[in-house]
Amino acid sequence: MLESLFFLIVAAVAVLSGILVITCKNPINSALSLILTFFCVATFYVMLEAPFMAAVQVIVYAGAIMVLIVFVIMLLNIKTETDKRTSHAVLISSIIGLFVLFETIYFLNRSSLTGSKGLMDSAMIKSVGHTEIIGKALFTDFLLPFEITSLLLLVAIVGAVVVSKRKI
C-alpha cells in the first residue's frame, strides 16, 4: 500500500516535470525540469531493484548530459521568443499529441503478453550482478550504437562552439 502511494507521488511529479519541460518559456527552467524528471526515473529504477541503472541515470543523464545541455544553452545565448508561438501551432500539436495518446492506449489494450522468458532470470542476475551483465551487453552487442551516440554528442558540442563563434 505504501509502495503504491510512493509510486503514484513520484509518477505525478515525473509527469508534471515532463510537462514543465515542454511548457517553460525559459530554456534553463526547462533543463531544470528535465533534471527533476531524470531523478524521478532514477527513483523508478530503485523501485525496480536496479540500483546500477539508477546510479547511471543520475550520474550520466542528470549530471553530465544536463551540464552539457545547460552549457550549450548558455553558449548559444538563446532568447525566449514568446511572440512567435501561435494558437494554430498549439492546437495542431495538441491534436497530434491526443491522437498519439489514444493510439497508444488502443494498442496497449488490444495487445497481449507473449509469456516468453528472456535469457536472464532473477537468480542469474543476482549471482552475476547487474553491472557485469550490462557491461557485457553494452560493449559487445551494443558497441556500435554506444560509439555513434558519443560521436553525436561530440558533433553537437562542436556545432555549438562554431555557431557561437560566428556571432562574435
The proportion of residues in beta strands is under 5%
How many beta-strand elements?
0
H/I helix tally: 7
- In total, the number of domains comes to 2
Helix content: over 70%
Terminus-to-terminus distance: 58 Å
| CATH architecture descriptor text of the largest domain | Up-down Bundle
Topology-level CATH name of the largest domain: Four Helix Bundle (Hemerythrin (Met), subunit A)
**Gross morphology:** globular
User: Which class do the helix and strand fractions yield?
Assistant: mainly alpha
Structure description:
The chain is mostly helical and 168 residues long. The protein folds into 2 domains: 1-79, Four Helix Bundle (Hemerythrin (Met), subunit A) (Up-down Bundle), CATH 1.20.120; 124-168. The protein is 82% helix and 0% strand. It is built from 7 helices and no strands. Helix 1 runs antiparallel to helix 2, helix 2 (27-47) packs antiparallel against helix 3 and helix 3 packs parallel to helix 7. The longest helix has 26 residues, at 51-76. The radius of gyration is 20 Å and the shape is globular.
Spell out the key features of this protein.
mainly alpha, Four Helix Bundle (Hemerythrin (Met), subunit A)
Entry summary:
The chain is an all-alpha fold. The chain has two domains: 1-79, NADH-ubiquinone/plastoquinone oxidoreductase chain 6, subunit NuoJ (Four Helix Bundle (Hemerythrin (Met), subunit A)); 124-168. It is 82% helix and 0% strand.
